[in-house]
Amino acid sequence: MTDHIRTPGEFVFQKTLKNSIHCSGVGLHSGAKINMTLLPAPANTGVVFRRVDIQGEHNEVKASWENAIETPLCTTLVGKDGLKIATTEHLMSALAGYEIDNVIVELNGAEVPVMDGSAAPFVFLIECAGTVEQDTPRRALRILKHVETAESHRSASMAPGKGFSINFEIDFDSRAVGRQEWFVEMSQTAFKREVSRARTFGFLQEFDKLLELGLARGGSLDNAVVISGDTVMNEGGLRYDDEFVRHKVLDSIGDLYLIGGPIIGHFHGVRAGHALTLRLIKTLFAQENAWEWVDMTYGDLMTPPLAAPVRLQPAVAAQA
After folding, report:
1. Partner residues linked to 185 by β-bridges
2. Quick one: which of 81, 88, 134, 223 could link to 117 by a disulfide (CB 3.0–4.6 Å)?
């Protein structure tokens, strides 16, 4: 295929992985060793998690807001017969950032491995596996009106906008974090450089309580930024000066990808977490005049690519 300049009216096509790829790591909250394999999938499959440690027909759950439940400190999907997949947000963020529409995620446990606490290891896996276009246009959710979910001290909202942009604000009673605000116009390049390496974080004084709740059993300085009082304990320090708010952006990107496709609009979070983002998605879909599904074109992107990649035909994609 001869490369050509993309035009705004051209469709953006769905993508999957070119090859399968494997990794292993510890579950952040379970502490269990988890093996994970990412496999190519046909167009319109979406992101599907498959528990290979469970036999029978109900060992899969689709990454959808309709299957998500509110759980402390992570995003959890629940399928039929109570099948659970926890801590999906970092992997989902990488898939969103790299515009992967269709993939099967095989796991031998109930949690996605945390790796180093960021999305960077998953970005590495995607780049090693390679990506291919499929012969089906991407569907995007275009935001048509402002929708907000708020509590006394936090809020999350969606509003119309070009491309996909995020603004996030946090405020913690620690001089190591303090008040931070960050804005980003999302593209694959921006995700890799500005978002993907931001790690999850927590406070040392809360660790014992989390353990009592059955959380953070796999947490360590290898997979989280740990704060003691006003000090970052990690030997290498921070990856970004404002790594904390960037990680909240990373989480939001992953949680919002449970919508089922990319967003054309603007997200604004103020001290929002996984639960509030999920409530925002439910509030959004409850208002049918606030959104519409559209076939995505390059005019909907912040920074369209210059050249067209080789496209994989549907029959080949299904066999990859």
Report:
1. 165
2. 223
Identify which of 249, 241, 208, 209 has the alpha carbon closest to the alpha carbon of residue 225.
241
Cβ(29)–Cβ(217) below 8 Å: yes
Residue 126 to residue 124: CA distance in whole angstroms? 5
274 is catalytic: yes
- Beta-carbon contacts of 134 under 8 Å, excluding residues fewer than 6 positions away, are 13, 14, 15, 16, 42, 43, 101, 102, 311, 312, 314, 317
The span from the CA of 283 to the CA of 265, in Å, is 16
Q: pTM score > 0.90 for this model?
A: yes
Q: Give alpha helix (H) positions in 74-195.
A: 89-97, 120-129, 188-190
- List, for residues 233-274, the tens digit of each pLDDT value: 999 999 999 999 999 999 999 999 999 999 999 999 999 999
Spell out the residues 6+ positions from residue 17 whose beta carbon is closer than 8 angstroms to its own. 38, 39, 40, 100, 103, 126, 129, 130, 131, 132, 320
Token code pair at residue 29: 């909250």
CA–CA distance, 161 with 178 (Å, rounded to integer):
29
Note the Cα 164 to chain centre separation in Å. Answer: 14
Q: What is the mean pLDDT of the chain?
A: 92
Which one from 247, 266, 268, 274 is the annotated catalytic residue? 274
